[in-house]
Design brief:
It is a multi-pass membrane protein. By secondary structure, this protein is an alpha/beta fold. The protein has 32 helices and 24 strands.
């Protein structure tokens, strides 16, 4: 394997490596506005025109285009990145000594506290009013008040109870989630070192510690490892500065920053080397910087200022409102006609008004809030069993309608841990000695164990390698830092521990780390295939770089491994420094991969079977995202990146987002815009699953925001659903629960509206033709109450398998058309019953009103109960598809109670009489005819509109 040649070639000669200089960038001149400060947006629009224009603009998505506020922030930061340091001081009206205490205090009053987002909690009464102010609640409230006025206390109490349930559920949901944006303050909870100047005649520079809220534009800040940048900062001086921008990008890797560079406009904003952003942290190094933006004018604030403003309107709630408006219009018309017709016949105004109120109650789907909230609560309980917390009940309904799921890659699709996939020499051939020395480095290093070390150790142990670390002994260690980006250990070994080594004890330095940094300290290269070691030539250097790039394009992370024999024995460990890392022999590379979860591929397949397409939105590299997606079976024919999206026009942006399945190197705002484009232009119901701060905007904008229990606090607070386990199979169960909830809710809505309108039209026909009340107010309210009680079992109904396979959305056109097709069937059945009573039993000619009321009560109650079985399925009821047992039991119970009431004391009190058994025979025939005609209408409807529910 080349060990003897390698080790015999090691020497103690040290050769200085040439320093790598950053390429110089030409300064791109850009004119600045006279006042670069951003305008305050904390007030109300100054005119009605501005307000209306704002409302109109919210209906559209800007696609790939930035807002005016974002463009100002971008232009301001790019201008500073392109400018010399002296010019930067002029832009922010500061000096190299910093601001005076008086000037800093003045600017603090002018700009306000340095917080990324000022969020005002709505008061409890505002939330309560919003929860109550719904047309449906108003209808029930008005009807209940009128019922109390008409001395119908029972009906009034029932309707008020339903309103109370609906308002309470919505109020507590909104009150619990209104505090989400305040979690942003967690980014700014550390003191800041600021350079200020003092003195009237001779000014003295002072380093003071201030609260982050008191930092103002123009302050010079001093930062060290662990410090948080209190605003957007233009760097003035740096010493090996490494910054973590994970709060903005989601990428775990740190990035190097330097003050000694001028950037160009072509560089992506978050990749600017001389700009640091609010909320990012110093990993290593130190320096000074000039604060150029604070508070609401920072990049982070611009990013988070859209929280809560881009949530798509709830199509279901909007549809319910429209139903309410239609019902109000129909109610006013029908009730007015009925009151007038009844008054002209009876000349009793109070009785006519009471009858009109009972008709209005019958026309209103009284159980809608209870059915909707019970269905959602039932789904929430079911998902809780799958270790899933539901914060917004409406999210369950959205899960049923969701047809696109956007997923952040790291930790969601992948295991968020590295595994070794290969160990290659400089020619790309697998070599055991590369793994051997990488193992020794990871085994003996003690300063800090990184995930890559654990991956190497696990790979060696699980694959049966016997590298015998007991024959090696650690002498010293040069720990990893973000400047060198490598770690070295000095080991000594016993005689013959490695190949043909003859000394009794030899000392070696084993180094591993970032590929380019390891190659910098190598003067020689091992050719294991030829069993030789030669000088490190430029051709070798380029070949290894190409190999590393090829591996990176495959989605792999690589590190280099090098070794060197120390001719001088180390006696004093304190003498060891990074100068020892020179003239080393390059051995090869170790390739790592963050593997996808075993459950992810199965879950994505199951989601695809249910019509939910997956799109990967990540801040990581495109190559890594493509590798993961290929392993999971996600198509990668259409991919794009954030920088590419920035260059597109609005139309091209939407088209690219529509086709792309993998979108990499996205900023938080780009993730949000992708979600909005899919919602508005593509008219999709979008879910977003993410766990980082950088995912918060997309989580907030999505129809269904999903996070995990281990995610960032902001992401969890903005999410509608929190997974206690990062398992996509939970989402599959959520989709099933959502479709069941949506389906049962739509069953009730269509059944109740069709049945109620059909019944009320029948009552109107009976009143106008027969000129008597078809039912007394008491009888009509009892019928309505019994029907409502029977409908409580609807949330426990099941759905057809075909309905569970595709997403279902609220359709504005489907409900009116559904009513027009199916309500006449109900009315026709009622009219047939009226004709039978009048002709066969002569109920009309003999004016046997009690007989007439009793028969109509039983027929109306039975039909309102049985209609659900016709509506609930596209198949033939009771033959091809049977309802769940709670619904069957409820149907039998309510019909039984309705038939039994006339034979009880209650029936006598309500004015009912006993009916002949022949009438029940007629009802059997009538309902057989109803189901036959209804089924024919259903088949024709499905044939034309290609759907039922």
């Amino acid at each position: 394997m080349g060990f003897p040649k390698i080790l015999s070639f090691f020497s103690s000669n040290h050769r200085k490596q040439a320093n790598n200089h950053l390429p110089s960038h030409s300064l791109i001149r850009e004119s600045l506005v006279s006042n670069p400060d951003l305008p305050n947006n904390d007030g109300f629009p100054k005119s009605l025109f501005q307000y209306l224009r704002g409302l109109m603009s919210r209906k559209k998505t800007d696609g790939g285009m930035r807002t005016e506020e974002e463009e100002k922030v971008y232009s301001w930061l790019y201008a500073l990145a392109q400018s010399d340091k002296d010019l930067v001081f002029e832009y922010v009206r500061s000096t190299e000594r910093g601001l005076s205490f008086t000037e800093a205090e003045r600017r603090l009053k002018e700009n306000g506290p340095n917080v990324p987002l000022e969020y005002t909690f709505p008061s409890w009464w505002q939330l309560l009013w919003n929860a109550f102010f719904h047309p449906f609640n108003i209808i029930l409230t008005v009807l209940s008040v009128l019922s109390f006025i008409a001395s119908d206390n029972a009906n009034g109490c029932i309707m008020l109870t339903l309103v109370l349930i609906s308002v309470s559920l919505r109020f507590f949901q909104e009150y619990g989630s209104s505090k989400a944006a305040m979690k942003l303050s967690e980014f700014l909870k550390c003191p800041v070192k600021v350079q200020r100047c003092a003195g009237r005649v001779v000014q003295t520079e002072l380093i003071v510690q201030v609260d982050q809220k008191d930092v103002v534009p123009g302050d010079i800040v001093i930062f060290e490892p662990g410090d948080l940048f209190p605003g957007d900062v233009r760097l003035l001086s740096t010493q090996h500065l490494v910054v973590s921008q994970s709060s903005l990008t989601g990428e775990s890797w740190a990035t190097e920053k330097t003050a000694d560079v001028k950037e160009g406009r072509s560089t992506p904003l978050l990749e600017l080397k001389n700009i640091c952003f609010m909320g990012t942290t110093v990993v290593s190094g130190s320096g000074t910087g000039l604060v150029v933006s604070t508070g609401a004018k920072t990049y982070m604030s611009t990013m988070f200022s859209s929280l809560g403003k881009h949530k798509p309107p709830d199509g279901f709630e909007s549809g319910i409102r429209r139903i309410s408006y239609v019902l109000i219009a129909v109610m006013l018309l029908v009730v007015t006609v009925m009151i007038l017709a009844d008054y002209l016949e009876s000349r009793n105004l109070s009785e006519s008004i009471l009858f009109g109120l009972s008709v209005a109650s019958a026309l209103t789907p009284n159980m809608l809030p209870l059915i909707v909230n019970t269905s959602l609560a039932k789904g929430a309980v079911a998902m809780a069993k799958d270790r899933c917390i539901i914060k917004s009940l409406a999210a369950i309904r959205y899960m049923g309608s969701m047809d696109i799921l956007c997923i952040d890659k790291t930790g969601t699709l992948t295991m968020n841990r590295a595994i070794v996939v290969d160990h290659l020499d400089s020619t790309g051939s697998k070599r055991e000695n590369v793994l051997h020395f990488a193992f020794l480095n990871s085994y003996f290093k003690t300063d800090q164990k990184y995930p890559l070390d654990d991956a190497i150790l696990a790979y060696v142990y699980t694959n049966g390698y016997r590298f015998q670390p007991s024959k090696w002994k650690k002498v010293n260690e040069l720990p990893f830092d973000f400047i060198r980006r490598r770690v070295s250990v000095i080991l000594k070994t016993e005689s013959n521990a490695v190949g043909r080594i003859t000394p009794i004890f030899d000392q070696f330095m084993v180094t591993k780390g970032a590929l380019e940094e390891v190659m910098k300290v190598c003067s020689f290269i091992d050719h294991a295939d030829r069993d030789t070691v030669t000088a490190f030539s430029p051709e070798d250097y380029q070949r290894i770089l190409n190999m590393g790039e090829e591996l990176s394009n495959q989605g792999l992370r690589i590190i280099g491994v090098a070794i060197k024999r120390l001719a001088l024995k180390i006696t004093n460990p304190e003498e060891v420094d990074d100068s020892f890392e020179s003239n080393m022999v390059f051995l090869g590379v170790i390739a790592f991969f963050d593997p996808p979860k075993d459950s992810a591929k199965q879950a994505l397949w199951r989601l695809a079977e249910k019509g939910v397409k997956a799109k990967v939105l990540t801040g990581d590299s495109l190559s890594l995202a493509i590798r993961i997606c290929k392993e999971l079976g996600i198509r990668t024919a259409h991919v794009t990146t954030g920088p590419d999206l920035e260059k597109l026009s609005q139309e091209a942006f939407h088209e690219t987002v529509k086709r792309a399945t993998v979108l990499a190197r996205l900023t938080p705002m780009q993730k949000q815009r992708v979600v909005q484009s899919l919602q508005t232009i593509g008219e999709h119901v979008v879910g977003f699953l993410g766990d980082g701060v950088n995912d918060s905007l997309a989580i907030d904008a999505a129809n269904v925001g999903i996070s995990v229990d281990s995610g960032a606090s902001v992401a969890k607070d903005l999410a509608d659903i929190i997974l206690l386990e990062k398992d996509l199979n939970v989402l599959v169960a959520g989709v099933e629960h959502g479709r069941l909830t949506f389906g049962n809710t739509m069953k009730y809505i269509k059944m109740s509206v069709v049945g109620n309108i059909g019944t009320v039209l029948s009552l109107l026909i009976a009143l106008l033709v027969l000129q008597i009340e078809p039912l007394s107010p008491r009888q009509l309210l009892t019928q309505t109450f019994l029907c409502s009680v029977g409908q409580i079992a609807i949330p426990w109904d099941k759905m057809e398998d075909d309905s569970m396979k595709i997403p279902h959305k609220w359709s504005e056109k489907s409900l009116p058309m559904f009513i027009l097709w199916n309500s006449p069937v109900c009315t026709l059945t009622d009219v047939a019953n009226l004709a039978f009573l009048a002709l066969y039993y002569s109920a009309y000619t003999s004016m046997d009103v009690k007989f007439f009321h009793t028969a109509l009560f039983i027929e109306g109650l039975s039909m309102q109960t049985l209609i659900f079985h016709l509506i609930r399925t596209a198949k033939t009821p009771f033959i091809q598809d049977i309802a769940s047992w709670p619904v069957i039991c409820s149907t039998i119970l309510i019909c039984g109670i309705g038939i039994a009431i006339p034979y009880t004391i209650i029936g006598k009190w309500m004015g009912f009489v006993k009916l002949p058994f022949s009438y029940f025979g007629f009802l059997v025939v009538l309902f057989l005819g109803y189901f036959t005609v209804g089924q024919i209408v259903k088949r024709v409807y499905i044939l034309i509109f290609e759907r039922w529910l």
